[in-house]
Amino acid sequence: MRDRNPGTFSQAERRAVYRAIYERRDIRSHFLPKPVPDEILGRILDAAHHGPSVGFMQPWDFIVIRSESVRGAVHDCFVAANQQAAAAYSGERRMLYDSLKLEGIREAPMNLCVTCDRLRERGSGLGRQTDAATDLYSTACAVQNLWLAARAESLGVGWVSILDFDSLRTLLEIPPHAIPVAYLCIGYVSDFPSQPELETARWERREKLAELIHFDRFGAQDSKRASRMLPQGSGNGNGR
After folding, report:
1. Crossing angle for the helix pair 11-23 and 134-152, to the nearest 10 degrees
2. Does the reported pTM lie above 0.85?
3. Per-residue confidence at 240, pLDDT binned at 50, 70, 90?
């Protein structure tokens, strides 16, 4: 019997990859006090470091934050930013916004800030000549790698995007040439919701994928054609 091509995945391996994708969630609650072992943290950071980067520039750095006092100070950054963000809503939308749990900074046993070094010269500019933002895109890819690896390790991850970033920069001593791309809350959780929390709370619904697919040019849509090629139930996949 011939050995399986080493470049292919078995059916079980494929299922595991897709399971991590579909069951990943943006976790803001249900964190347990159990610490994340260094060896597991090392594995998910290594997964992030193996993310794709344009020109192989690898523009990322990772600030591991376990200190309760630092996490408390970052929470203060969130509170200041959240007060401003909430002011953009009114009426029922404001009431719903105020009911949402939007961070787990202090509840999670550890936080992680992923930055992008915009002056890093690795890759010699390959791929950046026509789009200077590819370093930021590359860093986002690293975050997604980490997120999926964390789900495979049964770790919850929550991305806190509502922050006073000037205060965060000062607090974490981030130099001017580095951009804080993602502030993540990480830890074991008591539950992974079956649906994204914002969908459950009726903040937003998932778009129908078949209506977002274009053929050969933007605007050339055929929802029936698109639906035929999609897996059954694809509209109920993963989200934040």
Report:
1. 110
2. yes
3. low
